[in-house]
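Listing S7. Sequence submitted for prediction.
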Amino acid sequence: MQIMSLNQVRWLSLIVVMGGLILVLPLHLLGCFIAGFVVYELVNTLTPHFQKVISGDRARWLVVALISTVVVSGLIAAVAGIISFLMQDVQNMAAFSAKLAVLLEDAQSRLSPVMSRYLPSNIEELQHQFLLWLRAHVAMLQNIGKNAAHTFITMLIGMVLGAIVSLQRDDGAQPQPPLKAELTQRVRLLASAFRNIVFAQFKISLINTVLSALFLFGVLPLFGIHLPLAKTLVVVTFLCGLIPVIGNLISNALIFLVGLSLSLWVGILVLSYLIIIHKVEYFLNARIVGTRINARSWEILLAMLVFESAFGLPGVIAAPIYYAYLKNELRHAALI
């Protein structure tokens, strides 16, 4: 005897998937969700190319092994780079302090007395104020470190889960139970939405990188300003731009710090340009993403606004993916 109709099973699968998607945000598992789907999509995208050379499921296993090797190598290189950078700063602490002293003197001489009185007068006062700030925000810094460690670990777990799921192939020989079939369809639509957003984010990162390169190699040299590590900053801008919203903030902060190392006014000039680019990116993001998922810019912006109000920055990152999935479900049901 049939207990549930096909329509009821479909609604149950929708409740399970959408409920899980909403729980991802308050449980702080967005990094795990994105990392897992990235690995899943990479395996499914690259496997057909490897199957031209290697037959069977061995091609899929090879892709998983390559992705694992790249991820592990990247993490090792990143940790080694951070340690090397910190050790270099420790070894050159005197030069670093001298550079800070020059920046403070530059700020004191160029800013008006009303503004300059809020700045430390020398490097010793700056160090004292920094220590006071650390003591006043110990709990906040501990919380940031805890959240960063949690995100890093859950992203690794998500990558492993994505690789495991991508290795599970259904040959289609046996008919699936109704709920399993409907859940598979939900996941298929979610994967399609995620893939569209990823390709859109790639285009956004490329455009943002071109704009940054024009600024670093075109606009600044007109004023006789040549930022050190400009080529590296362009590469970092592209890589960070693949991360929605927050990646752009990371690359902008690095460019600002490099500009600040030259002088205070170069830092202010760079920061002003990056703020403009950052504001434009919201509308650019909505436009490009909207084209990929057949949605208007105001729809994406509204979704980002609502999710930001409800879940903060993770909501801004998740909003385009969730909205694209909702559009896929409505289109699949022939409602739009």
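Caption to Listing S7: primary sequence and predicted structure tokens for the chain studied. The longest helix spans residues 178-222. Residues 179-336 form one domain.
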